[in-house]
Amino acid sequence: MADRDATQHSEWRADPIDLLDATVRSLGGEDRPGQRDLASAVTLAMTHGHHVVAAAPTGSGKSLAYLAPAVASGLRVVVATATVALQDQLVGKDIPQLAAATGIDFRAVALKGRANYVCRAKLRTADDPEALFEVRPGASFDDDLEVVRRFAASSPTGDRADLPEDVSDASWAACSCSGQECPGARECEDGPTCFAEAARAAAAEADIVVVNHALACLDLEAGGQVLPVHDVLVVDEAHALHSAATRSFGADLSPGGLRGLGTLLGRHGAPESPLTALRRSADHLEGLLGPLEGQRLVDEAGRSVRGALQAAAEHLVAARSGVAASETPEARRAHRLASSRLETLRRMGEERPGDVLWVEGRGERALLRLAPIEVGDPLARHLLTERPVILVSATLGGPAPFTDFARSVGLDPDADPGHWGTAPDRGTDPDEIVRGTGCGYVPLEVATTFSWREQGTLFVDPTLPDPARATGASVLVAPGGAFQVLAEIGTPPHPAYREATFQPTAIALSGSGPDRVVWVADGYGANLVHRFRPDGEWLGAIAGGDEGDLRFRTPHAVHIDDRGGEPEVLVTDRVGRRIQAFDLDGRFRRTIADGDLTSPSAIARLGDLLVVRSEEHTSELQSPYVISYAV
Questions:
Q1: What residues pair up with 519 in beta bridges, in sequence order?
Q2: How large is the greatest C-alpha to C-alpha distance in the chain, in angstroms?
Q3: pLDDT higher for 75 or 264?
Q4: Which candidate, 403, 401, 435, 432, places its Cα nearest to that of 418?
Q5: What is the pTM of this model?
Q6: Which among 368, 350, 351 is positioned nearest to 359, based on CA atoms?
Q7: Which pLDDT band, with edges at 50, 70 and 90, does 554 fall under?
Q8: Is 87 exposed, middle or buried (0-12, 13-18, 19+ CB in 10 A)?
Q9: What integer pLDDT is reported at residue 621 of this predicted model?
Q10: What is the dihedral of CA 132, 137, 138, 140, to 10 degrees?
Q11: How many CB atoms lie within 10 A of CB 599?
């Protein structure tokens, strides 16, 4: 850790600008004044201990601009990103390039949420006939289980991203453990060989740790018990931090999940009487939520639902008591999960002025969601008081000093920038925190490196309907030129969104009438492509091809290719550098231009050909399906 009693950090390994220049030269890159300006601003922040809010447009080289000072400083730095694509770029490309060009010895690792690693304890009992699953595995479960077992026996990481073969999300959930159900290494017989704990141990020894926004927010909520102790936090793609914090500081609950939890507790000795009462409470809750889809729970409806939640909490306490003394790992996981759900029931059962409670879905898919109205105050209290935070994004909504964005994350545009101060010990009364770094900040607007007049073309189709009539996150169609809302699409009920944020990047429609399907690519969230009915009912998701290493890495665009024969669904994978084709039921067919495209991000029809937007291509593409052109 840095000397937190000093007014500035002065023990640097090297000059940050020298490291940046060396790396750029090694890549054959050109000098970018904006990149130097950002690197200088980050250097000053790390020296004096104040916050920075910087808008650095795409192409300005912002990742190297903050990584060079991070390495040069000798401080322990956590870098948080919103997307897997940027995490992969940092760990797989930018950081190795910086290390190779500078010759400085430092350690950098990626740390992910617990559910991304194989859980040895759950893997051992996954095929038990008595095993219960929150998401029931499909027909491929036996084969998937064998894949995961071979992987766990040989992998040094247990990280799902390293799987040699893809497995379904439901199968993976049966072999992994979320933070809500993990009893902790001390309470698990597999603790000494736990993959997730090994990843945390490696992160504790690293100089730079790369995480996602969700994990960074979870660390804030847990009082710094998730991430290793660090001196500086860099938040890239900072425009998405507010959404990640809202989700992390919120909660969700389903009646079906309560029933499943009751069955799980029953397997581990919970008394039948409170279990029966818990199931009845879940049924009653489901009945209350049925007619409330899409509604915020206030007034009489809110009081009725909160009463049902409070009753369910009482029954859960009684049911949980029957497994509290059990010594089996499975029972300890069940007890931990019950405790987590109990916290959610109690929070939702209270009418707190700072929370919003609403209903998504209906029937068995009904889901209660809770989120704080504002996250600025908790972010200011937990994020900004102990260390300098560098917030960087390509877009922050307006010119410097980015007032709206700053206030949304707890910064004060009118306050003076702070400095290194004495950080509070863990457990200190929040009202007595010494705000060494303060809530002021230094704004920076990096000039673009592009000449839009010379390098870009703006085209506006005069036949498009008026976008002012679009609302929210609706799926829109224009039958006969009339503009109407087809469906309201919310966060899908997929287990990946316990950690990820739903960030759709493209949409397509297939079929007609009762066979109409809405396809939504979530390229910046969970890396899934979802299928919905026109009324918004979720039909499922695809995660990529089913052979070899074909899992989506950034499914950015989706297109229905109906030029002849049986229609296909084409998905461009930016990081995977390919296009994947599926039938209309979501079954994988083949890849197109595998490895020949660089960051393919959009696809459209041009006569009998398809045009794919790609930064460049590495070979002449003779396929009649693809035309690639440089941006």
A1: 508, 531
A2: 74
A3: 75
A4: 435
A5: 0.69
A6: 368
A7: confident
A8: buried
A9: 39
A10: -120
A11: 17
Cβ atoms of 516 and 47 closer than 8 Å: no
Q: Which two tokens stand for residue 256?
A: 């079906």
CA 40, CA 17: separation in Å to the nearest integer?
Answer: 7
Instruction: Spell 519-556 as b/e; 16+ CB within 10 A means b.
Output: bbbbbbbbbbbbbbebebebeebbbbbbeeebbbbbbb
401: cis peptide before it, omega within 30°?
yes
Phi, psi (5° rounding) for residue 307? Answer: -60, -40
Tokens of 460: 């506006």
How far apart CA 522 and CA 114 sit, in angstroms, is 22
117 phi and psi angles, rounded to 5 deg: -115, 150
Give the CA dihedral 445, 449, 454, 458, nearest 10 degrees: -50
274 to 133, 322, 558: CA distances (angstroms):
21, 10, 48
What span, in angstroms and rounded, lies between the C-alpha atoms of 289 and 615? 48
Query: Which residues, other chains included, contact 534 with Cβ-Cβ below 8 Å and sequence gap of 6+?
Result: 486, 487, 516, 518
Phi/psi for 139 (5° steps) reads -65, -20
Distance from C-alpha of 245 to C-alpha of 457, rounded to nearest angstrom: 36
Angstrom distances, CA of residue 472 to CA of 404, 476, 490: 20, 11, 10
Q: What is the pLDDT of residues 68-109, one digit of tens each?
A: 999 999 999 999 998 877 888 899 899 999 999 999 999 999
235 pairs with which residues across the strands? 80, 391
334's CB contacts (< 8 A; 6+ apart) are 181, 261, 264, 265, 267, 268, 323
Q: How far apart are the C-alpha atoms of 60 and 63, rounded to whole Å? A: 9
CA 57 to CA 38: how far, in whole Å?
Answer: 11
**CA-based nearest residue to 476, from 503, 509, 505:** 509
N residues, the chain = 631
User: Which helix (H) or strand (E) is 202 found in, with range?
Assistant: helix 195-204
Distance CA 231, CA 45 (A): 12
- As a whole number of angstroms, the distance between CA 152 and CA 265 comes to 28
Three-state DSSP class for residue 230: coil
Question: Which residue from 94, 28, 39, 33 is spatially nearest to 66, judged by alpha carbons?
Answer: 39
Report how far Cα 9 is from the mean position of its chain's Cα atoms: 32
Q: What would the two tokens of residue 629 be?
A: 């052109």
CA angle in degrees (0–180, nearest 5) for 84-173-498: 55
Specify the residue for token string 């390098």. 455
Q: Kindly provide the residue ranges of all beta strands, DSSP E only, lying in 394-479, ordered along the sequence.
A: 441-445, 474-477
Distance CA 140, CA 547 (A): 13
C-beta of residue 49 within 8 angstroms of C-beta of residue 419? yes
What is d(CA 173, CA 268) in angstroms, rounded to the nearest whole number? 20
